[in-house]
Design brief:
globular; 15 strands; three-stranded antiparallel sheet; TIM Barrel; six-stranded mixed sheet
Length: about 375
């Protein structure tokens, strides 16, 4: 069975997360988005596990897989996928002596190396990989030049691309050959602008957390989907204060200090990935570049936010008519979409045809887009 999954989110117990990151709201948002498999997020937190276990006693149309993100002693973030909440408790026991905030926050800091954390995850038969691997902060390639330098002899089971990269950014990095790439939202809000803004299509033999883990181990991924990389906050090398963009050579000549305002120049994902890409590109599943439906509607209506009443009314009409957002963005014929809203239909046709003008982001500011 082919399903779309978003395996990296956070809970109401994480810093800077919405209070609405609650099981019922998340499941409802997944249904509207078209996500069939959702990572629980923050599964090492006792209170969050309890909320999920209470919600999952009945039937649900969305498969929930226990997941969590942790930060190691080198400030590298790791995504962890487990097959049950009992396994989460086992991992919690292993990590508790090294994490003083394990019971207070959804994304704990663990005073261990990546290798030591990976060893504990593998001991409870879970999967681990670098979260948002290419971003210039709290990531694998922000701190190390290879997975081995971070994880030692422990293998990684997947790599999460992050919002500023697509599959092409890792395809020619020799150490990543054969490692599945995941696309996830890292959502801190259940709003469809955030949840499922990046997702992975996987083929599962059974709809269970164990079936999802088996599919990732086997590389049974048929699609990655997400932002155009240029839309990400760190795609290009840029000043983190004024956001002026630089080539890598210009940044080095300026000693990574902006000549305009003295701000720190942050190396972009595109430059970092290019420097690491020393091999021949390996074949990867198709990568579908998408723009969230709410953002398309906001652009067409020329409003300040996708959350305005006018945008939400149009969004709801599309979902009520066609079922879910992913179907609207990828499958419904444009003439059918036009019966709901002609302007939005034209914009969806433009992005499906790659008639999109992108202004790359960098330095911590998102990129922007417009339609030809």
């Amino acid at each position: 069975m082919q399903l779309f999954c978003d395996l990296h989110i956070h809970s109401c117990f994480s810093i800077a997360s919405s209070r609405n990151m609650l099981p019922d709201i998340l499941i409802a948002s997944c249904t509207r988005k078209g996500i069939g498999i959702l990572g629980s997020g923050d599964a090492l937190h006792d209170g969050w596990r309890k909320l999920w276990q209470e919600r999952l006693r009945g039937d649900t149309e969305v498969l929930v897989v226990p997941t969590t993100e942790v930060e190691d002693r080198n400030r590298v973030h790791h995504l962890i996928i487990l097959d049950s909440f009992d396994r989460c408790r086992d991992l919690q026991t292993l990590l508790a002596p090294h994490a003083t905030n394990l019971h207070r926050t959804g994304r704990p800091h663990v005073r261990l190396s990546g290798e030591e954390i990976a060893r504990s995850v593998h001991a409870v038969e879970g999967l681990i990989g670098p979260a948002h691997a290419f971003t210039p902060w709290t990531s694998l390639y922000a701190s190390f030049d290879s997975p081995e330098a971070c994880y030692g002899v422990e293998p990684i089971d997947f790599l999460e691309l992050g919002l500023s990269a697509d599959s092409s950014y890792g395809a020619a990095i020799p150490e990543l050959a054969g490692i599945p790439f995941l696309s996830n939202s890292d959502a801190h809000s259940p709003d469809p602008i955030r949840l499922g803004r990046e997702f992975t299509g996987i083929s599962v033999s059974e709809e269970t957390p164990g079936g999802v883990i088996d599919a990732i181990r086997e590389g049974a991924i048929f699609l990655n989907a997400g932002f155009f990389p240029e839309e990400g906050k760190y795609n290009r090398t840029a000043c983190s204060r004024c956001f002026r963009q630089f080539s890598h050579a210009e940044a080095e000549a300026a000693r990574w200090k902006c000549p305009d305002d003295g701000g720190r120049i942050t190396r972009g994902v595109a430059d970092r990935a290019a420097a690491l890409s020393t091999g021949h590109p390996t074949r990867r599943p198709p990568y579908l570049h998408i723009i969230p439906l709410g953002e398309i509607i906001r652009h067409v209506l020329d409003t300040s936010s996708p959350s305005t009443k006018s945008c939400l009314m149009v969004y709801d009409r599309f979902i009520q008519t066609f079922g879910d957002e992913i179907r609207v963005l990828t499958r419904i014929p444009v003439p059918d979409l036009a019966r709901v809203d002609e302007g939005v239909a034209r914009a969806i046709d433009a992005f499906r045809s790659a008639r999109v003008h992108l202004v790359p982001g960098g330095g911590g500011r998102y990129g922007s887009f417009s339609f030809f």
